[in-house]
Amino acid sequence: MLLIKNANVYAPNFLGKKDILVGAGKILAIEDAILQPTADCIIWDANEKIVTPGFIDQHIHIIGAGGKHGFGSMTPEISMSNLIACGSTTVVGLLGTDGASRSIKSLYAKTKALESEGITAYMFTGYYGLDPVHILGSVQDDMIFIEPVLGCKIAISDFRSSYPTEHDLLRILRQVKVGGMIANKKGILHIHLGNQKIKMDILFKLVNEHEFPIANISPTHVGRTKELFDQAIEFAKLGGMIDLTTGASKYTDPYKQVLYALEKGVSIDKMTFSSDGNAGLDKLDENGNLIGFRRAVIDQNYLQVKELIKTQEVKMEDAIKLITQNPATNLGLRNKGCIKVGADADFCCLDNEFTLTDVFAKGKQMMADKQVVVNGYFE
């Protein structure tokens, strides 16, 4: 058991100074003061640090991505310590353009490996293409029988997509929705948006003309261009959740995009951050010539939240929703993204300057005093 004392708790709503009792990876109690229940219960004094739910990255390439300049431009797998270093205690892995040399079964294996190393990992079946790659016989089968599968990924408005029609998307959405119903999952179609002129037009048809539930449609990279983001704002006003990419595919700083959307009347509860981390990006010289390759960074989710807090235009408890409560809601994860009795004991601890200092995953301390103390098996 673990007893966290003297924490300024943002659950994400501000609860004030609390003690948190943890056992078997779950939150057992949250009180003003909790006495040590047993002699062998570990006590950790938060020293009045801010304690938030563990951060959720709902779009990250855990087995690597890239490859648009040949095999040598593929990024490698991600390590667990890199995730802990930026506070990501829950991740959702996915494939990108490549559904051939990048295997959906390898993605499943990495998902399970991260789980065994101490964090929570899920995945999307499918990839950019209209012919979704899956582990079993169909997207619906994966939803029902593969526990970590939360939905399916596909791409639209991108020359690398398969140019799906609205009826193509509806057929996949049906599998995601029905499979989710049977498996007691929310089920979402996670949709990569490119920069073509059609933008999100087809998604509005799904909702307005075919009356498909908007909660099961999850567009990402909505801040790729200003024009696309303006359309995404209208999607959010219809009740949809829009995902802003922090590590790549953005026309300006994501925290500025949040401020703009709030100005236009979008609720903070309808936006999420994800990194697109570990995707393959070009490294260019000052003349725009290709000189190498780099990975999309994975640490910008919280850093963009921190910038948002520093503007003093958004309260801490609202800003932190972008990487805790909101992605949990989008993914249908009932015990993630919050600090409440019965929820998973995932915590990020911040000092008075909002710097990440300590991380707990499933009740185990993974970072202490800004140093990762638990590494993956092969690190």
Question: Can you put this structure into words, describing what you see?
Answer:
With 379 residues, the chain is an alpha/beta fold. The protein folds into two domains: 86 residues, Urease, subunit C, domain 1 (Roll), CATH 2.30.40; 277 residues, Alpha-Beta Barrel (TIM Barrel). It is 26% helix and 28% strand. It has ten helices and 19 strands. The strands form four sheets. Strands 1, 2, 3, 4, 5, 16, 17, 18 and 19 form a nine-stranded mixed β-sheet that branches. Helix 1 links the parallel strand 6 and strand 7. Helix 3 runs parallel beside helix 4. It is globular, with a radius of gyration of 20 Å. The model has no long low-confidence stretch (mean pLDDT 96).
In brief:
This protein has 379 residues and is α/β, with parallel strands linked by helices.
Features:
about 375 residues; 9-stranded mixed sheet; globular; TIM Barrel; 19 strands; alpha/beta; 10 helices; 6-stranded parallel sheet; single chain; 2 domains
Shape estimate: globular
CATH class of the largest domain: Alpha Beta
Main sheet properties: 9 strands, mixed
Continuous helix count: 10
Looking at the overall shape, the CATH architecture of the largest domain is Alpha-Beta Barrel
Q: Give, in order, the helices and strands.
A: EEEEEEHEHEHEHEHEHEHEEEHHHEEEE
Helix content: 25-40%
Number of strands: 19
Share of residues in strands:
25-35%
Helix/sheet category: alpha/beta
Radius of gyration: 20 Å
| Mean pLDDT across all amino acids | 96
